[in-house]
Request: fold
Amino acid sequence: MFWLMKVLSALLCLLLPLLNASVPTVCQPGQFRNYNTNKCEPCPVNQYRSKSGTDISCDICSTCKKGSEIIRMCTKTEDTLCSCKSGFMPKDVLKQEICFCDKGYGLNDEGDKCENCSNGYFTDKIDSICRKWKECKSGFKVPGSRTSDAVCKNTSEGLTEAPTATSKSSFQMTIISSTTSSTTTTSLPKNRQNILFPVLICVGILLLTGLLCMWKVTHCIHNNKKEATRQESVCKKPVEESGEKSLSLLV
Reply:
C-alpha cells in the first residue's frame, strides 16, 4: 500500500506541470499572452488591450483621418479617441475617424474647414467648394438654396457657376482651360470637314470615270461579238448555196 501511494504521488508530480502548461494564462488589460511562453507581456507601441483575456495579440490603435482630430491619444488600455472638426459630419458616429463636409457646406482652400455656404451660394456634393447661383436676367423659375442651384425662367439662360471668392483665381483658370479646350475641339471638326470635302469629291470623280471606262469596254466587247457573228453568218451562206448547186449537177 505504501509503495502504491508513492507511485501515485510521483505520477501527480509529473502531470501537474503538463496540466498547468495546457491551461492558458489570463492577462490583464494592456497585456497579451505570449503563445510560446504562456506568459503575459505588455502591448507593443501603437497597440492596446481594453479587456482582460487569453488573446495572443493586442489591437492596433485607430488613427484620426480626414475631417477629424484627436481628442485622446492611444494608450496600452484605451484606443485613440477621434472627433469631427467643426462643420464636418462623421461617417461612423461611434468612432468618428473619417468625417466629411456635407451638402450645403463648403470646404476652404486648404480643405481643413467646413463652413455653411453663404446666401447665393450652394453645394450639391459632399466635400466640395461653395458655388454661386446662376444669374437669371429673365427671373428665377426655381430659386436656389444652400444645396441646389437656381433655375432660370429661360432655360437657355444662366452664367457658368462660380465658387467662393477665396478661389476665384482657380476658377478663372478652369474657365480659361475649358474655353481653350472647347475652341480646339470645335476647330478640329471644321479642319476635318475642309480636308474631307475635296477628298470625297476626288473619290467620286474617280468612281465615275472608272464606271464610264468599264461601260465603254463592255460596250466595245459586245459590239465586237455582234460583228463577229454577222461575218460568220455571211460567210456560211455562199458555202451552203455552192454545196446545193454541186449536188444538183451531180444528180
Remarks:
- Residues 23-60 form a domain with the Tumor Necrosis Factor Receptor, subunit A; domain 2 fold (CATH 2.10.50).
- The chain is about 40% helix and 15% strand.
